[in-house]
């Protein structure tokens, strides 16, 4: 399971009171540049890194041995941003350069270049390989009849074998006369023949944001259905699972500010929604349920972890993470790792009053918690020596992470979940 363009936080973790469950570092290697993207598949970890200033930067796409971290191959090309992904025997990179996006395909084991295609996207918001297709979402500037221009979201679908563009779609068509709208693709997901995209429409006149949720037929780009939801804005998280499209984002004007909803894959009709916290809730969905983490800043900041029935949204269990004193908590990631729910948060010290009380915290604290499917806390660890992860990719009980520590020192690491033979 891959999620891109999201800032995550992790740490090097050691066994704690729950000695039978831990998250250990298998290997750790430095990066050559700014760590932006990582993909983990079979015996390779693919990384995307940028070296140098924006006006003279180069992109490094590297293939590392998944068991040792040793460098196996490297491709260097001019560029200022990069996404990577991997599937089967192939590795892929989407490289931003001179207002365009270059897609490259490599033989995953050796790094041999298989094909290269240029796409006219100014910026990329999501990139990935799904089956026999390469998907690219982002935005570009389009000219209007009145001489002005506006940003608009676009989706490109490429043949995985040849790199040929099979079809593309524009999220919105510029409207003359007003209201004009800036519309962006935020994320996508795919299952079977369906390509689900979530975007945001921002009318310049009314000022009311809309969630734009669409289902395209992967083979030819035929639009199966479109759902518009007013007063919902991005950034969004979208996941297609169990015959539903799950989406989280923010609610305009809400006292809490977030939403979590499930739409039917067949027609895009809302199946259920649930109240959320102060910002976009983080979630992950599987056959076992939808796991949602939200923060509610009512009197004392409280974080709620919920497991809901994937079909009805009925609450199965709820756990509370209480306030951590004079800190502001930021939820950075929720995911499933070999059956365990992983909740990663960052506790940032609040501004101190005057005079500063003795012992008032000054360092950011990283907290990682693991829950079993029944909501029982089985592992907790925290440290002030944080590693800020820009991307990661999970395979089974292992995941590769790329990021940096205390400054500009970049790293790529392999983590592995240790359960001592105990299954969740």
List its salient traits:
424 residues; mainly beta; Methylamine Dehydrogenase, Chain H; 5-stranded antiparallel β-sheet; 4-stranded antiparallel β-sheet; 0% helix; globular; disordered N terminus
Enumerate how many helices there are, as a single number.
0
Poorly predicted runs: 1-19
**Would you report the number of β strands?**
33
> Structurally, how many domains make up the residues?
1
> Approximately how much helix is present in the residues?
under 10%
- Bin the strand percentage: over 45%
The N- and C-terminal alpha carbons lie at a distance of: 20 Å
Radius of gyration: 22 Å
* Main β sheet profile: 5 strands, antiparallel
CATH fourth-tier homologous superfamily: YVTN repeat-like/Quinoprotein amine dehydrogenase
Q: How would you sum up this structure, described in words?
A:
By secondary structure, the chain is an all-beta fold. The protein has a single domain (8-418), classed as Methylamine Dehydrogenase, Chain H (7 Propeller), CATH 2.130.10.10. It is 0% helix and 64% strand. It is built from no helices and 33 strands. The protein has strands at 8-10, 22-30, 34-41, 44-51, 58-65, 71-78, 81-87, 90-97, 100-107, 113-119, 123-130, 133-143, 149-159, 165-170, 181-191, 194-203, 210-217, 223-230, 232-241, 244-251, 258-264, 270-275, 282-286, 289-298, 300-308, 315-321, 327-337, 340-349, 365-371, 377-383, 387-395, 398-405, 409-418. The strands form 8 sheets. Strands 1-31-32-33-2 form a 5-stranded antiparallel beta sheet, with no helix packed on it. The chain has a 4-stranded antiparallel beta sheet with strand order 3-4-5-6, with no helix packed on it. A hairpin with a 6-residue loop joins strand 4 and strand 5 (58-65). The radius of gyration is 22 Å and the shape is globular. The model is unreliable at 1-19 (pLDDT under 50).
């Amino acid at each position: 399971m891959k999620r891109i363009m999201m800032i995550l936080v992790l740490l090097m973790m050691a066994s704690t009171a729950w000695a039978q469950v831990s998250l250990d570092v298998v290997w750790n290697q430095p990066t050559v540049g700014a760590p932006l993207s990582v993909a983990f598949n079979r015996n390779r970890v693919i990384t995307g890194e940028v070296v140098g200033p924006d006006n003279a930067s180069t992109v490094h796409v590297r293939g590392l041995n998944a068991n040792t971290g040793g460098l196996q191959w490297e491709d260097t090309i001019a560029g200022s941003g990069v996404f990577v992904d991997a599937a089967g025997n192939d590795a892929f990179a989407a490289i931003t350069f001179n207002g365009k996006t270059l897609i490259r395909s490599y033989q995953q084991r050796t790094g041999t270049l298989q094909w290269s295609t240029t796409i006219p996207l100014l910026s990329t918001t999501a990139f990935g390989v799904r089956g026999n297709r390469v998907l690219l979402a982002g935005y570009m500037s389009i000219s209007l009849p009145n001489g002005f221009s506006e940003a608009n979201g676009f989706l490109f679908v490429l043949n995985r074998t040849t790199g040929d563009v099979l079809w593309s779609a524009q999220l919105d068509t510029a409207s003359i006369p007003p209201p004009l709208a800036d519309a962006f693709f935020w994320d996508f997901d795919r299952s079977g023949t369906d390509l689900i995209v979530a975007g945001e429409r921002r009318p310049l006149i009314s000022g009311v944001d809309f969630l734009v949720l669409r289902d395209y037929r992967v083979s030819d780009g035929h639009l199966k259905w479109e759902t518009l939801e007013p007063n919902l804005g991005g950034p969004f998280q979208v996941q297609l699972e169990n015959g539903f499209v799950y989406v989280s984002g923010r609610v305009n004007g809400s006292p809490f500010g977030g939403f979590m909803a499930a739409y039917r894959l067949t027609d895009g009709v809302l199946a259920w929604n649930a109240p959320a916290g102060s910002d976009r809730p983080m979630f992950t969905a599987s056959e076992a349920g939808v796991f949602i983490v939200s923060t509610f800043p009512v009197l004392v900041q409280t974080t709620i972890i919920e497991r809901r029935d994937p079909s009805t949204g009925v609450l199965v269990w709820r756990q509370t993470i209480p306030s951590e004193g004079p800190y502001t908590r930021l939820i950075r990631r929720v995911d499933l790792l070999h059956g365990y729910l992983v909740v990663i948060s960052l506790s940032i010290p609040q501004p101190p009053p005057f005079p500063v009380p003795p012992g008032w915290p000054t360092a950011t604290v990283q907290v990682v918690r693991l829950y079993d499917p029944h909501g029982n806390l089985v592992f907790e660890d925290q440290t002030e020596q944080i590693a800020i992860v820009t991307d990661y990719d999970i395979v089974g009980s292992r995941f590769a992470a790329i990021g940096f520590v205390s400054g500009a020192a970049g790293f790529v690491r392999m983590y592995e979940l240790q359960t001592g033979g105990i299954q969740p």
